[in-house]
Amino acid sequence: MWLAVAVCLVLGWWQAGRAAEGNTLSWGYMFQWPLFAIFLIILWVKEIRNTLRRDDNPLPVEKPQKRGPIITRQEAVPGDDDDPQLAAYNRYLAEIKER
Asked: pTM surpassing 0.85?
């Protein structure tokens, strides 16, 4: 982490030199690289704090219970017999299922 911070700061210094020579794009990079270094330090501190707060004896993980197959049945919808074509199609499907 410290190496990455050092690289970011060196790159920021390099961009400051280029910006002083007249490269206008380097002005943005001159501020960007130190912000990356600060971001790395913040992440590092947060990870250290999370590691120190972590409980050494976590709760045991329960294994999921095995379940059997789920069987679904389609209930007859009232009014299916109102349409003779639908009733014939349903009888056809029932015959196919029987075979």
From this structure: no
Query: Has residue 45 been placed in a domain?
Result: yes
CA distance 42 to 28: 21
- Cα 14 to chain centroid distance, Å, stands at 36
Can you say whether residue 22 is alpha, beta or left, with left for phi > 0 and alpha for psi between -120 and 50 degrees? Answer: left
Looking at the domain assignment, is residue 84 inside a domain? no
Tens-digit pLDDT profile for residues 4-46: 999 999 999 999 999 999 888 889 989 999 999 999 999 999 9
In-domain check, residue 31: yes
Cα–Cα distance list, 96 to 77, 85, 86, 92 (Å) = 20, 17, 15, 6
- What radius of gyration do the chain's Cα atoms show? 34
CB contact at 8 A, 43 and 67 = no
